[in-house]
């Protein structure tokens, strides 16, 4: 059976209880989609944590080189990474026992999505395909 993303109601419930969102691949460049999405999420009241090596801060928030370096709880990981990096990201989320992972629109990796779901990670993306 092919991977099915969460329903709209499940996504709404996740966003209602999420407060802190780690954005993996958050670019400091205002013309990049990751920047626009993260800035919008800040505008909706979410705390954004940039996860991007070699960057000190983005959108006024301290940046970290990896999810493991982020202090405190993460409610949702929002990933702006190429498809070839998704397997390692899912493995890191599983190892850190993170509750939810959202992959950017157009990136599909069903085996990784199934591994995440089997580990209890809620997952989806902007086009509702992980």
Structure description:
With about 130 residues, this protein is of the alpha/beta class. The chain has helices spanning about 10-15, 35-45, 85-95, 110-120; strands at about 20-25, 45-50, 55-60, 60, 75-80, 100-105, 120-125. The protein is globular. Mean pLDDT is about 90; it is low at about 125-130.
Number of domains: 1
Please tell me the CATH architecture by its name.
Answer: 3-Layer(aba) Sandwich
Residue fraction in strands: 15-25%
Under CATH, the homologous superfamily reads: NAD(P)-binding Rossmann-like Domain
CATH class label: Alpha Beta
SSE-based structural type: alpha/beta
Instruction: Quote the distance from N terminus to C terminus.
Output: 14 Å
User: Can you tell me the overall shape?
Assistant: globular
Number of helices: 4
Instruction: Briefly note the CATH topology name.
Output: Rossmann fold
Kindly state the number of beta strands: 7
Widest sheet: strand ordering: 2-1-5-6-7
Largest sheet: 5 strands, parallel
Mean of pLDDT? 88
